[in-house]
Amino acid sequence: MKIINTNDANFKEEFENILARAKTDIKEVSSIVTSIIDEIVENGNSALKKHIEKFDKWEVKEDSQLQISKDDMKKAYENIDEKLKEALHIAYNRIKTYHEKQLPKSWIDFEKNGTILGQKVTPVDRAGLYIPGGKAAYPSSLLMNAIPAIVAGVEEIVVCTPTPNNEVNELLLAACHICGIEKAYKVGGASAVAAMAYGTETIPKVDVITGPGNIFVATAKKLVFGEVHIDMIAGPSEIGILADSSAKPKYLAIDLLSQAEHDEMASSIMITIDEEVAKQTSIEVENYLQTLSREEIARKSIEDRGAIIVASSMDEAIELMNEIAPEHLEVMTTNAFELLPKIKHAGAIFLGENTPEPIGDYIAGPNHTLPTGSTAKFYSPLNVENFLKKSSIINFSKQAIDELGEACALLADTEGLTAHAKSVRVRLEDN
Amino acid sequence: MKIINTNDANFKEEFENILARAKTDIKEVSSIVTSIIDEIVENGNSALKKHIEKFDKWEVKEDSQLQISKDDMKKAYENIDEKLKEALHIAYNRIKTYHEKQLPKSWIDFEKNGTILGQKVTPVDRAGLYIPGGKAAYPSSLLMNAIPAIVAGVEEIVVCTPTPNNEVNELLLAACHICGIEKAYKVGGASAVAAMAYGTETIPKVDVITGPGNIFVATAKKLVFGEVHIDMIAGPSEIGILADSSAKPKYLAIDLLSQAEHDEMASSIMITIDEEVAKQTSIEVENYLQTLSREEIARKSIEDRGAIIVASSMDEAIELMNEIAPEHLEVMTTNAFELLPKIKHAGAIFLGENTPEPIGDYIAGPNHTLPTGSTAKFYSPLNVENFLKKSSIINFSKQAIDELGEACALLADTEGLTAHAKSVRVRLEDN
């Protein structure tokens, strides 16, 4: 694995390349995705069926075949291995407990003059979850997207997942059963996003669409934003690791590889202040690579997009990491907690040597749907707020409008809005 | 003003029309805005200058002329009328107090097995506020956009506003002074949004862009979403009023007009259960219309997009209003508070006869930047969270990974991710 040093003459350039690589350019597929969306808006189910035949290679004879039955979910759940069932329940419960702590309350506040101000928190009516399917079916994605919606109190949750050759992953079905999903559909890609954004004869129009997906799904989410809300536009997975001399190279290596194995486009970057740790980790990466079932993918990712950076101080290391704003950040130092105040941008932060990133993918509790490509500078992990929205509450008493009304009308006057001013003054005249 | 009844044979159709009218179609301007954004990305300041010459009709001779000086802000503040100054300070303080109540705290939580989970809340580094300028310069918009960013703790706030003929509204300058704005630029429209999203030689790249604007600004915000975060895509202003027989028609009428005067495309809809209130309000609207400085705009809005609906029950009225999901909702009934549980979708809710909507525009405290066109079904009012983002915190102890690691590795196995599983098991082997 490539090792570079912040003192290298061309370091700045190398680092700019690392940052640039993380960006996803959705322009290239925009026109294809736009026409897919237009087709769904115009032709609804019949367009969906056409896309399923083309991409998933099976023929939908009746609309009812689009839906996955609750019975199939139940059967799948009953058939899975007990150990796995237990693991899914542990994950479900821990994820639920964590997200319950995120739930904001409506609040209200009173002033002496009789003014009442507040904020009402309400779940959206309908949420649409996009869950990748086929070979890369991730039941954990279903848990991570459905549970925040359930905790938020969303009444109707819609799931869409592609089913190549009309096959649904059994574990995904089992996870749907555990989450009590009522409405799941065998629709994938940009078509699924369009169907949930605009509705078809079978698939309900939702208010919010969340969930991971390839560049077509990400682009569709961007294009329907405004018609519905979305969580974020996410690209390939990333890990950043901050390490000092106390970090164990074999842990660092396998953790770097845990993201590299996702995708050739995944990015694994370690910044360390210890040159020896850098060297040893690079050696361990090569050792582990040869043992992986997804060696080819991981190797390409590490070669094209991986890097170990040797920094001259932990402050410099953190500054660079804040620029990267990685999806996952592991802090493998003796004083991991004490570095938190300086860490500004990261989707999820994993502290200490017993917290490998995969712990957060499955079982810790926090969401694994996280911002990528430096967007942790402004996006948050998927959370219950993605399924809620707020309304301001304002109640003025006679006394309150008497006290504040004229200042309000004056400001309206200066903006040339006479009806605004008058609507206040007509009350003042009556009081 | 047109009165329709939910019992009318064609009511459903009429109501669908009302809902459809509220939608903004940004498709028509997308290609123009795309090329404006591309120009700014390619040519930076020189493109900005070209656009200013074209749209704002003045020549920018040097880059430094793009910036509004802090001195000009101070002078403007010193020159305004004392009453108005006081009104601005009252507004500033009340808006600040309200938004401080929205500020979420980082939190952390401990488990017996040594697990630590939490959520770190961090402000974005840079926020960009778009403030409309020229004839429709609204100093209140500056307060409403800047204060949540200030409360969130954003270190660098950038303001862009168009300056036709190189003139800046004095009150907007004064409001900038009150908010302590350091970086304000004379750039408007889609160019300003593009400049803040991608940065130019003079204008810093920001992380979040908020603020109102015309269809070009709204479209630009949608197009740069993903490169930066945005608050929402907003269209013309709206008011919905729920009224029973206790409501005063003259209040209802002037409140309907307070939105109609904003824009010919603004929408003012009242739903009442009292036919007499409907009739009297319609008469009062006509009376007031003749007194307004913006009569022409307000009349066109009321005629084309206004409606009074007579419903057969308050439940039916609320159900229809939830479908509309208005930007502003006034509840003018005897039991306004008791209706709150049933009201699901509205940007801001104004309760009782002493709370006309303009109170919320200027002085009450809650934000006046609100979702329009039914998007209150999923967007929230502008708030401090728009300027914050979260990072999950995860720390596992030896005991925690011993207890939960195997369940985690098992789930990774089923998803075919061997490096994920190995990264956990290599720790278990060591423990």
Automatic annotation (TrEMBL), chains A, B:
Q: Which residues bind substrate?
A: S237, Q259, H262, H328, D361, E415, H420
One example of the protein's molecular function in GO is: histidinol dehydrogenase activity
Q: Which family does it belong to?
A: Belongs to the histidinol dehydrogenase family.
PANTHER family per UniProt = HISTIDINE BIOSYNTHESIS TRIFUNCTIONAL PROTEIN, HISTIDINOL DEHYDROGENASE HDH
Which residues take part in binding Zn(2+)? Q259, H262, D361, H420
Q: Which Pfam families match?
A: Histidinol_dh (PF00815)
Please provide the record's keywords in A-Z order: Amino-acid biosynthesis, Histidine biosynthesis, Metal-binding, NAD, Oxidoreductase, Zinc
Among the entry's GO cellular component annotations, what is one?
A: cytosol
What is one Gene Ontology biological process annotated in the Swiss-Prot or TrEMBL record? L-histidine biosynthetic process
What task does this protein carry out? Catalyzes the sequential NAD-dependent oxidations of L-histidinol to L-histidinaldehyde and then to L-histidine.
EC code: 1.1.1.23
| Cofactor comment text | Binds 1 zinc ion per subunit.
Family matches, as InterPro entries: Ald_DH/histidinol_DH, Histidinol_DH_monofunct, Hstdl_DH
Q: Which cofactor does it need?
A: Zn(2+)
Give, as in the UniProt entry, the pathway in which the protein acts.
Answer: Amino-acid biosynthesis; L-histidine biosynthesis; L-histidine from 5-phospho-alpha-D-ribose 1-diphosphate: step 9/9
Matching HAMAP family? HisD (MF_01024)
Q: What is this protein called?
A: Histidinol dehydrogenase
Catalytic positions are: E327 (proton acceptor), H328 (proton acceptor)
Annotated catalysed reactions = L-histidinol + 2 NAD(+) + H2O = L-histidine + 2 NADH + 3 H(+)
